[in-house]
Amino acid sequence: MIQITRSITLDDSEIELTFIRASGPGGQNVNKTATAVQLRFDVRKSPSLPDSVKERLERLSGRRLTQDGVLVIAAQRFRTQERNREDALARLTALIQEAAILPVTRRATRPSLGSKRRRLEAKSHRSDVKNLRSRPDKE
User: Fold this and answer.
1) Cα–Cα distance between 46 and 61 in angstroms, integer?
2) Would you tell me which of 1, 16, 31, 123 could form a disulfide with 40, CB atoms 3.0–4.6 Å apart?
């Protein structure tokens, strides 16, 4: 069980981990060992996530989401399989935690009387400054 938030936990069976060969650091060892991790998580079929979190997660995932609704995270930052596995799981939990936060709805407000007055005073002051820069009249 992976704890995401207080109310959301993921079962280990929902996450599929495959190890592949990684590019990057590792020297000659990189050609022999499969250290990169490809994490696959089916967002649409997950029984652990509420529908609202699923929708926000699909929007947040972007290119990492396949046509079938499977979230794919590739981790190859580190030289060991275990650290890449932890990195992929941490990135998945961070993404789900971000999707679990309800967006704050904006309430329309009107500008206060004081802010309107200050804005108009600033505009007239600016207008006065610009008028002072112009040439004097020929009177």
Assistant:
1) 15
2) 16
Structure token pair of residue 17: 């981990």
Residue 49 lies in a domain: yes
Q: Count CA atoms within 13 Å of residue 5 on its CB side.
A: 14
- The answer to whether the beta carbons of residues 72 and 111 sit under 8 Å apart is no
Higher pLDDT, 55 or 108: 108
The number of domains in the chain is: 1
Domain that includes residue 58, residue range: 2-100
Q: What is d(CA 38, CA 18) in angstroms, rounded to the nearest whole number?
A: 5
Query: What is the pTM (predicted TM-score) of this model?
Result: 0.66
Answer yes or no: is pLDDT of 91 > 80: yes
Identify whether 24 is part of a domain.
yes
- pLDDT for residue 43: 81
- Per-residue confidence band for 126, with pLDDT thresholds at 50, 70 and 90: very high
Q: Does 121 fall in a domain?
A: no
Pick the closest to residue 38 from 81, 101, 100, 94 (CA basis): 81
E strand or H helix at 89: helix 81-100
